[in-house]
Amino acid sequence: MDATRTFPQWPGRRWLLLVALTLVFAVSLFFAGRMLLPSKQPPSSGELIEAAPPAADIHPAKGKELYSNYCLPCHGEKGGGDGPASRFLYPKPRNFGEGKFRIVTSANRMPSDQDLLYVLNRGMPGSAMFPFSHLSESDRLALVGYVQFLMRAAYEERARQLAAEKEEEVDAEELAESIDRATRAEGALTIPGDLPPPGVEAVARGREVYRKGGCTSCHGDTGKGDGAQKQFNDDGTPTRPRDFGLGYFKGGRDFQQLYARILLGMPGSPMPSSRGNLTPAETSDLIQFVLSLSDPAAQAKVEHKRAQITARRTPTSLADEISEDEWRSAGEIPIVVSPLWWRDGAEVDLRVQALHDGQALAVRLTWLDKTRNQTAVRPQEFEDMAAVQLFKGSPEPFLGMGASAQAVDVWHWRAGWQGKPVAYADVDTTYPAMGVDWYPFEQRGNGSRLHAPERQPREYASAWAAGNLRSDPTATFTGSSLQAKGFGTLTMRPRVSQQVRATSAWKDDHWTVILRRPLQVSPDAGIPLVPGDKVSIAFAIWNGAAGDRNGQKLVSIWHDLLLE
To answer: Rounded to two decimals, what is the model's pTM?
Structure first.
C-alpha cells in the first residue's frame, strides 16, 4: 500500500485515527482529572493559584539554547529523561514526553506554565532538580515554553509513528488540535476560603483523617515512610514513600502546594489523587497533621538558594597556618548540598569561608561527618573527599563538569592524600593479614615485610608508570588541581601545574578542609584570579561511609565568590 495516501473514500477513518492518537497519550491524564471534579464549583472566596505570564510567546530558539546549556545533560535532547547525567541521578530526571509531572495544580493534572515556573524557581527538594531562580524571568519563561514544546513534540512524534504503522496520512490541522486538547492544562486549582483554622484541634482531626484515609499503608503509622516499601513509578523506576519527619517536600511546605499534592496526587508516581474521597476541610486538617510531624526549618536545609561568598582581603600575607581569628573575620556562609543519588541521611551542614591576601586564595570548608574515612584499601571502602569548582565568565555552564567551550577549574581534596597516603603508611598495622607481592632477592624498606611503595618496580605498577599522579607513591602534594569540559573529560593537571595545596583536620565529628592556590597561575594551571573578581563557585562532598565515589556525591548549586 502507498504509505502516503490520503482518505478519499472514508473520511471517518481520519476522525477515528485522531481519537486513537489522543487516547495513546492523554486519556488517563485528561479524563482522570475530569472525573474527579466536584459536582459543584468551589466557593468563589477560594484562593486561585495565579497563572504565569504566557510562555508561548517566547521565541523557541532562545528556549532551546537555554535548555541545551542547563537541562539537556539530565533530561536529554528530546526531554526523554535520558541525558548523559541521568545514569548518576535518583530519582531519575523527568521524561517530559510522558506528560506526567509531579508538581501540578490543574484539574486535569497537566502542567501549567505556572507549575513549571514554580519548579524552575525553587527546584524539587528530595531530587537532583536544582533551582534556576538566578536566571532572568524572560529566560525562565523561555525554558518553560521549551519544556511545553518538548512535551507536545513527543506526543506528535508518537502520533505520526502510529499513523505510519496504519499507513495513513495525518491531517496537520486536526493533529494540532488533538495535541492542544491533550496537553493543555485546564481547571486551575481553587482553595475554599472557609477552611478550619490551624491549631491543636486541627492536628488531632488530621491524625484521624491520616489513619482512616489510608495514608498509613505507605507513609506508616507515624509518618516515617515505613509503610509499603516496594513501590514503582509508572515508568518502572523504584520509589519510596516520603518520611514526613524529615520535614521537606518536593513541592515545598506551602499550604497551597500541599493541598494540590493531596487533592491531585503526583502524576506518574504511586501518590494517588484524593479528589472525591476527602472534603476540603479534611484535606486542610490532614495538611496540619503532616506539617506537625517535622520542624519547619528542615525545608530550608534542603532548598538551594544562591549566596555570595566574599573572600576578605587580609592586610598581611596569609600565614601557613591561618589563625581562627582571621577565619572569624571572614564570616561564614551556610551552603546546601544535596545527594545526586538521593538518600535520607543527616544534613552535613556545610559552612564556607574565604580569605585572600592579593597573592593567594584560601577557601575553608567545614561539615559534619561522624565517621572518618581515610583509607580505601579494600573494595568496599571509600575515602571522604571534597571539591571546589570554579568558573569565570558568562553565561555559566552546566553545573556538572562544565561544557566543551566552558572549562571549569576543580580543586580536589581526599582524606588519604595528606602527605603519604595513609593506606600505605598503616597497612602493616591496620591490615596485618593483607597479602602483598614481594620478591625475595630485592631489598625491602625499613625491615618491613612489605616493599616501601616507592621501591616497587614501576613496570609492575602500570598506573604509576603511565604517569597517573594519583598512583604515584612519591607524590607529596596534598590537594589536586583538575580541569573539566563536560562529562567524561575530568583531567588531572600535570605535576608542574599542581598549584592547589590542602590541609585538613577531623575533630568532634567534623571535617575542616582548607584549599589554597595562588591567584595568578598560568592558564595550564587553572583560572587566573585578581582582587575584585567575581566568579562562580560550587561545592561537592563525598561521604565515604555512605559509599560515595565518582558521581555519587553531594553537590551545591552555583554560588558567587567575590574577591575583595
So the answer is: 0.85
